[in-house]
Design brief:
Length: about 190
């Protein structure tokens, strides 16, 4: 964090400005997309954000080259945000952020996403979440097995995954300049890829 003092002529007014360069104003998904581009540019992995299928219903054509979509609907619920291949292994994951400092609510995850990640896991792919705890400014790779355990027990127990679980059973991903979120380093270390 950098504090800059701005001085005006004759020292009449002073203003402090705080700049936090930690995330450079990016969202988790865009940080992952920048990381994925880094991996692709260096031929490390091929991982992309999945497009959400949309049904266009109404288009306005004010001019031939200025078509504008007026109305559209999601065709089907999206499965997860990202998928690809790394060292011959299929990986599939979703990105989630939470403002809570104590847990990640399970309501942030949809049942069709769990079903999809479960199928990927059953077929030998690597399924996980990347979770950003905004207040702590920490990023974690949460293995599907841990996520699924909490998902299966939510009707009889907690409705969230505690922060402590991330500390003890997930893997922290350090934020850096390049790549921003080196989650493949976590896969190399803890999944022995």
């Amino acid at each position: 964090m950098v504090i800059t003092m701005i001085k005006y002529p004759n020292m009449r007014k002073q203003q402090e400005k705080m700049n936090n360069y930690a995330n450079l104003g990016m969202t988790l998904e865009s940080d992952i997309e920048i990381t994925n581009q880094y991996y692709l540019d260096r031929n490390i992995a091929v991982i992309h954000k999945k497009p959400t299928p949309v049904q266009v219903v109404n288009v306005s054509y004010p001019a031939r080259n200025k078509a504008k979509i007026i109305e559209a609907y999601y065709k089907t619920p999206s499965t997860t945000d990202f998928n690809g291949i790394y060292k011959g292994k299929y990986i599939d994951f979703d990105a989630k952020e939470t403002n809570s400092s104590t847990s990640m609510p399970l309501r942030n995850i949809h049942s069709h996403q769990i079903e999809h990640l479960s199928r990927v896991h059953e077929h030998g792919g690597i399924a996980f979440l990347i979770v950003h705890f905004k207040k702590q400014n920490q990023y974690f790779l949460l293995p599907f097995e841990v996520l699924n355990r909490f998902w299966q027990n939510q009707n009889t127990g907690r409705k969230s995954i505690p922060y402590e679980t991330f500390v003890t059973e997930a893997y922290e991903i350090k934020f850096s300049f390049q790549p921003r979120l080196d989650y493949l380093k976590v896969l190399d270390t803890f999944y022995n890829i």
